[in-house]
Each structure stands twice: as C-alpha cells, then as structure tokens.
What does this fold into?
Amino acid sequence: MSAVATPARERIGRLETIWEERPGFLGWLTTVDHKRIGLLFFFTSVAFFVAGGIEALTIRTQLAEPSSTVVGPKTFNELMTMHGTTMIFLFVVPMGLGAFGNYLVPLMVGARDLAFPRLNALSYWIFLASGLFIYVGLAIGQGPDQGWFSYVPLALKRFDPGYGVDFYALGLIFNGMSTTATSINLVTTIFKLRAPGMSLNRMPLFCYAQLAAAGSALFLIPPLTVDLVLLELQRKAGFHFFDVGGGGSPLLWQHLFWLFGHPEVYLIVLPAFGITTSIIPTFAKRKMIAAPLVALAELLVAFIGFGVWAHHMFSTGMPNSAMVFFAAATFMVVIPSTIQIYAWLFTVTLGRPEFRTPLLFVGAFIVFFVIGGLSGIMFAAVPFDQATTDTYFVVAHFHFIIFGAAVFPILGGMFYWFPKVTGRLYHEGWAKAAFWLTFWGTALTFFPMHIVGLLGMPRRVYTYPGGLGWDAYNLSETIGAFVLTAGLLLIAANLLVSRVRGAPAGNNPFGGPTLEWATTSPPPPYNFAVIPTVRSEYPGWDDEALAEDERRLRLGVGTLEQGHEQPETTVRDGFADDVVEMPSESGWPIVIAFLLTIVFALTLTSHYVAAGAFVGLAGLAAWVWLWKEPAE
Amino acid sequence: MSVRPEAVAVPAARRSQARGWWGVALLVATEGTLFGTIVGTYFYLRFKSAQWPPEGTPEPAVVVPLVLAGVLLATSAPMQLALAAGRTGRARAAQLFLLVALVVQSGYLAMQIHLFADDVRAHPPSANAYASVKDLLLGADHAHVAVGLAVTLFLLAKLADGRVTGYRRVALQCGAFYWHFVNVLTVVVTLVQISPRLG
Amino acid sequence: MRVPRSLPALEALQWFGLLAGPLAFAAEHVIGLGATFARCNPAGEVLGVEQHLYQLTTMAVAAAIVVAAEMAALLAFLGTHGLDFEADPPPGRIRFLATAALVLGPILLTLVLLSGLGAYVHAPCRQA
It folds into this structure.
C-alpha cells in the first residue's frame, strides 16, 4: 500500500475525521453508530441466551428422571417462565432485529446509518434495562412463575399475589418500547435511505424479511402492551377486565395475548429467513430463483400470521363458526413458507453449491423448519389440536421452529458475517465439527418430545411418575441438551479464538453479492466512502458498478464529505431526493433509558405520583435532545 | 445495460416525504393499533354483557362529549395553517396559528380532566368492566392529547427566534400530522364512549 | 381487455393487485369473526346480529375483490412484458411487484372461501 496521499485517500481521511466517535468506554455509552449498537445488541442477547440456556439445562436435568427432586415445583415454575420469557423477548427478537437488522440493513441498502441513530441507541439501552428489570425480580426471590404466556386467572392477584407477575408485565411493557423504536427505525431506513438506484425490485431479500419483521412488530406489540396494562390495572387498581363477576372475561387475556403471540413467532423467524436468503446465493453462486415470490412470501407470511391467533385457543370452547376462520388461515399460512423452501432448494440445486459452514447451518434450518412446519400444520386441524394441546407434542413443534428454524440461521449468520464484522476468518474445520454436534444435539433434544407428547406427557409439569413409558425419551432429551450445549460452546470457542488468531479476511472472502461485501472488513464508521451505484439486485457481483464507484471516489462524486451526510431517496424507486445531516453521538439515550427504568420501578412499587414526575423528567430530556438542530 | 443513476444529484424540490414524517406515520400506525385494541376490548366485553352499561351505572352523556370532540377536531385547522405558513417561511404567522391551537387544546384538556375526575370519583373504574374499559379508553386518549400539548409548545418555542429552518419545517409537518391523528382518534373514542346510546 | 402501456395505469394496477386482496381478506376475517362473537354472546339477542348474512356477504365481496386484484396484477404483468426483474424503475419495479402479486390470488381466494363457507356450514354457536 502506497503512502502517497491520493485524492481518494484524502477523502477517506476527511470522512474518518467527520464520523469518528469518542474513544473508550464512554464512547460505547454515547455511540449512535448502528454497527456498535448492533454489537451491543448482539452481546447482550447472547448473555440472555446463556441465562435462558442455564434455565433450560436445569429444567432438563430435573426432567431427566421420573419423580426427581433436583428443583421443587415453585422453582421449576420460575425457571420455565423465565426460560420462555428470556429466550423470546431478551434473546431471539433483539438478536434478529437489534443485532442482525441493525448491523446489516444500512450496509445492505448502501446507507451510512439507520434513519434515527439516537433513537437506535435509546432502543438498545431500553432493551438492556428491561431485561435487567425482569431479572431483578428473579434475583430477589420474586421471579415470575405464571408461565411465559401468563394466563389469567392464575396471573391475577388472588392466585399470584407476589411481585413476580408485576416484574414480568411491567418489564415487558418496557421491553416493547425498545422493539417498537427499533422497528420504526428499520422500516424508515428501508423506505428512505436506500442508495440511489436501489428501487424496490433491487432491494436485497434480507431487507424484505427485515421489513416484514419490523413492520409486523408495529402492529403486534400494541395488543401485548394493552393486555399487560389491563393485567396491571386489575392487579394494582382493582379494575375488572378478566373476572366474570366484574363483567370481564378470562378469554380476553388469551385473545389479546395470542393476537400478539402468533405474529410474534413470525417476527422471530423472519430475520432467519432473511439470513438464509443471504447465505444461499453466496454459496450456491447464483441468483435466488423466483426472487419476487420470495419477497412476497416474506411479507405475506407476516400478514396472514395476524389472522391465525385463536389456533392457540382451539380447546377453550369457542364456537365452531369462529374456529373455522382460524383453521383456514392456519392451513394457508404454510403456503408462503413452502414457496420460500422450494425457491431455496431450487437455487442450491441449480447452482454450484459450496458446503461451507454457513450453508450447512442453512441446510439444517430447512430440515428442522420442514419438520416443525409439518407438526404446525397438523395443529390447524381442530380435532388433532384438541387432542395434543398442552402436551409435549406442542413443545416439540415450537422448539423445532424456534431453535431449529430461528437459531440455526442465526448461528449460520454468525459464521457468515464474522469475517465482515471482525476482519478475520473463522476456523472452518472446527466450525463444521461444532455444526454436527449442534445438529445432532438439537435433534436428540427435541425429536423425542413428539413421541412422548403423543404418549400423553403434559407440558409444564415439574416431574412425572415412572412407568408410563416416558422415562427413556426424557433421558434422551436431557442427554441431547448437553450435547447441544457442547456444540454451542465449541462454536463460541471457535469464534473467540478466531477473533484473535484468524487469518485476515479481506473485503469479500465468500464472494457475497450484497453491498456489505463491497466495503472493508470491518466497515469504517461511515460504511461507504462513496455512496454506491446500484443497478441490480446483486450490486456486489456488478463489477462495472464497483469500478464506477472507485472512479467516483477519486473524483469526489457522491462522497458527501461536507458533514455527517446521507442521501434520502424515494420509497418505491430509489430516486435521489435530498441530502440530510445525521446526528452524532449523544448521552441522552442512556439518560432517558435510565429515567424510564425509574418510572417502571416506581410503578411496580405503586408510587404513581413519583413515577409521573420521572415521566415528566424523561419528557424534558427528550425536549433537550430534540432541541439541537443539524447544520443546514 | 441500464441507465446510470445520477448518484446523489438531488432535484431542486423534494419528491417525497422526509424521514421524520415517516417516523410519525409509523408511530401513528402503532398507536392507532393500540387504540384499536382497546376499542376491540370494549366491544368484546360489550358483546359478553346482556346489559351495557350494567345495572347501577348511568348511561354516557352524548352532547358534551361530541361538542368537545368537535372543538378538538377544529384545532386541526390552525395546526395545518401553521404548517402552511412554515412552508413559506412565515415564522410569525406560524407562531400565531400555533398559539391559537395551543389555547384551544389546553382548554379542551382542562375541561376533559375536570369531567374525568368527577366521573371517576362518582363511578370508580373498579366498579365493573364497563367503567374499567371506558376509563382506560378515555384516559389513554387524554394522555395522547397531553403529549400533543407538549408538541405544540415545542414548536412554538422553536420558532421563537423568528426563523424557519429545514429542521423546523419537518418538525411542523410532524407536529401537524400527530395532531390530526389525535383529533381523529378523539372522535373515534368519543363515538365509542357514547355508543351505548346509539345502538 | 386491452393491456395498458401507460405508466400511471400500470402503477395503479400493480398497487391494487398487491394491496387490495390482503385488505379484503383481513376485512372478511374481522367482520366474519365479529359477527360470530356478537351472535354467540349475550349481546346477540339484544343487537340481533344476523351472523350468516354478514359472513356470506363479506365472503362474496372479498372473493370478488381478490379476483379483481388478480386481474389487475395480471394486466400489470403483461403490460411490462419483456422486462427483467432487475430492470430500471419504475417499469422494472412494477414488473417485480406485479409478479409477486400474481401469487396472492390463488392463496387468498382459497382462504376467503374456506373461511366463509366453513362458517356457513357450521351450526351457529355450537362449541368446538
């Protein structure tokens, strides 16, 4: 590399100066860089995954043998509740949207940051605070124990008088603010900040998946928020929503919960679809077959997913003429997913596949997703559902989907983008070994659950009597859980060691077609020295466009080095519309998250006036935050 | 091969809405869903009751709520006029319209809080599901109006130095959008509130 | 029917084709469920909800809209004949989204008919 100052190098130097943030620990507290915030989300989600995993291993240890006394029923209930709550709200959703979405969407659309960088930071700090809030309850012996879906009347004060349910409810209302903020950010970025030339037909399918996920979050969080508010109003202020005596209905809780809960599982799996749809073209070395259909399938599965919620309530005694709407929608919601599976399989078969670790994880994902999807569609038949509801057959189904179909692509994505984020290659041999360990561990843990469920084992039991034919299956599942854990630990070890000792990766070690591969590894704070030229859906494979970008960098066309600049484009066709000034680092997000934590803590302890005062303070902080204007 | 896009050669006038507008639009979508859920809850509980409101709870008033909702809806006019003035750089005119809006919005909220406090004292929400869901719906609406007051105040303060910058133009757009949403929402909430008298 | 070539017409057909069907299904779903909940609860007697009338009417209207949307998507697809999915916008984008919209018709029509006819066939309010 020459030390002579070329025009390109000078421009890069200017951009570095404009976009650099303060160094050290303080820099992480005030960062608004989507990549750093994405990493914060990533590591925090992993920490919660470890917590949820320890809860799972304890559950499995208790259930390894009949009539076991490793943990008692109350502790078991807490573990079971926290495992579900942690894995869904504090791991898989923040990982999908906050980590992968945050880090990759701006890079893939050719932008320099998300649409609202400071809101992004606020979203992270609220996520961290809400997770810690719920765990404080567990730590002080007031852990939630009413199950992750918290059915009434069990969750009402009469039957669960401690603070556990309140930590859960208020913590999740708090957490919902983070998801909502991230979703507004992702959707606006995808609509407005795509590089000029990136019309909707040239947007990466990963971004369609993120759009579907974030877009649906905006509509699924409110029903949960309302449900939790109703619960807390009833618990703390004696309102009547769920008790028949007061004119309420216990089923109201379930309707609102599943109105949230079912779309939530599509929110969980859509980022995984996006990761899969990114990995396959790279390693199959061909464009995705039927790309418009895949894009549509991603949006449609989220949309129809809003119409199936009461399939979680088929055994509650509702009329047939209502259930049929949900049965019909549940049967049809599988079609978009099937379209995607065929598109993926055809793309791999018709390409020249290179079975490196990311593609192996994607292959496993397809296997697990098909199995989990088949058990899912079985539930669409009301009679079958009524026979298997609340058995381990259900537990098998959703673990195949959440672990098999959401976590496996996340693991594959970790390997795939590791070189981009760290600038180093992972060790391929050890990665493949870890993959097989994880794959067989997963199969051994969750497949026997189908059988033991059909043999009648109910879910959420802290123990079971011997001699019912369940013992061997439970023991296998526990063994499988430890094998799976070994696989995950090997993955972590590989990535940690490779972080320090891995070979240099270069910009595009796998030959990926999307824009994140067209910049350095790791990307600089400003992502792209020149705003990319986009003329196809696979700009990373468009050598003419890449050469064009080099030329424009030398000439200073589209480098936007006058300030913290970013182009805005039109929604449908990506025509350049404006150049906007992006905000730089700020301490207000962490301050506001802190103030809101106090609001929730005061509400938990029924100090409503004080809580209101802190709401006012948070509002004041927001006022000061918004007061400062960007340079014109 | 395709035509080379004019990378970041931007047109003189914007073709589409700014990021800020989209942020508010998406906020409207999510908050609208929130209220849709509460309204759905209201009718779910209503369908489950033979008598609504239940025995011992008075039927809702019709005239006062409708008049108040109409008054608030009318504030969409000064808010939109403030936006129009801001777009053409007339800061003082924008401030005047915002002030008119603020006075009416504050008066509306003060009246509503007074009525709400009286109602809650006489017929507490903990009496039955009807009172619970009605008071939740109204309380949520008043809270959104209160946030709107802060928005109007912010816009007034921002224009105090008599200049309309690009940032302030977008801020006016966002503020007006938010208020139109709250006003329409209030009409919907009022119709739900008086619905037992309409059936 | 003549295949339109003008950009505004193709644009309108593409968006109608993409959005009308899902919205019609959503409306049928909400109205159909609402009719059942109203009829099969105490309010049913008071409000006099004619469940099957609501459900069959919304099914018919929704089905008609889904079919119309499919026709619109087809016209937009044919009107952009010869274009690659990655072609320059707006025509390339219209081609892409119209292709996507074509898939909606069969799926949503099946859904709408299954729900509506299913609801009609079942005795009202009989517990599942």
In short: The mean pLDDT of chain A is 96. Chain A touches chain C at residues 199-202, 291-293, 295-297, 300, 303-304, 306-307, 314-315, 317-325, 327-329, 331-332, 335-336, 339, 382, 386, 535-537, 572-575 (CB under 8 Å). The first strand of chain A starts at residue 565 and ends at 569.
